[in-house]
Structure formats: C-alpha cells, structure tokens
Amino acid sequence: MKCRHSSESGQTLLELVVAIGVVAIVITALVAAVTSSLRYSQATRLRSRGVKYAQEGLELARKLRDISTWDVFQEYAVGGGTWCLDESGTWTIDTSGGECPLSASNNFWRAVHFVWNDPTMDVTVTVSWGERNVPSTVELKTYFTHWK
C-alpha cells in the first residue's frame, strides 16, 4: 500500500497559528478596553471630588458672607483677594500663588478668589489636583449681593 502524505496536516497547523493570533488580538483589545475604562473611571472619580470641594468652597464663602457684616465680607477682596481654604474651613491669605493645599493627606488644592464689582462680590473657587503629572482643574463661580 502506498503511503500518501496529506497536505491537510499543514493546513491544520496554519489554522492553529491563525486562531492563536486572532485570540491574542482579541485578548489584547479586551485588556486595552478594560484599562482605558478603569483610567476613565478614576479620572471621573477625581473630578467629582474636585467639584465637591469647589461647591463646599462656595458654601463656605456664602457662610462667611452670612455671619459677618457686608463691610467685613468686602475686605476679602482687598490685596488680590485670593485665599486658601483648607478642609477644616480655615481661611488664610494665599501666599503660594493659588496652590493652597486642602490638607496634607491628599493631592487637592483649593483657592478662593474674591473680586469686588460694586454692588456684588464675585467669588471663584478653583480646585486643582495632579494625576500622573497631568494637572486637572475645576472652577466654580458665583456672585454674592448685600441681601440683608
């Protein structure tokens, strides 16, 4: 009996290599998609915290307006009008050029800028944070009037 060599064994090997290549491409695409999703989720979480800190800054500025007289509140716009506001709600004049650490335990900075535009006080809260050497910032603005 003659022994025949079938060319099908070579095709099976070729099909196996192609299948492994396709599986490798699919797995690589899945890993890239999951990594991108996790990175986006982290960036969104940090941005949400930044917006929360900025809203808190506006509320503390509103409280400052409400507990003091309007003349005292206007004084916050004097001398450049930029203040640091930490997590405990303590106001200090900004000497760092707008990089006021929120606390020693996190990577967020919050500065509050007051501008007197008679008859209103414009307030801008800027919150910044660093992520992989890419700085991010959120800024909220409002104005206050002498409503009392």
Tell me what you see in this structure.
The protein is α+β, with helices and mostly antiparallel strands and 148 residues long. The protein has one domain. 44% of the residues lie in helices and 28% in strands. The chain contains two helices and five strands, in the order ααβββββ. A hairpin with a 2-residue loop joins strand 4 and strand 5. The chain is rod-shaped, with a radius of gyration of 29 Å.
Task: Describe the protein's topology.
Layout: H1 8-67, H2 70-74, E1 82-85, E2 91-93, E3 108-117, E4 120-131, E5 134-145
Antiparallel strand pairs: 1-2, 1-3, 3-4, 4-5
Question: Characteristics of this structure?
Answer:
148 residues, alpha+beta, 5-stranded antiparallel sheet, single chain
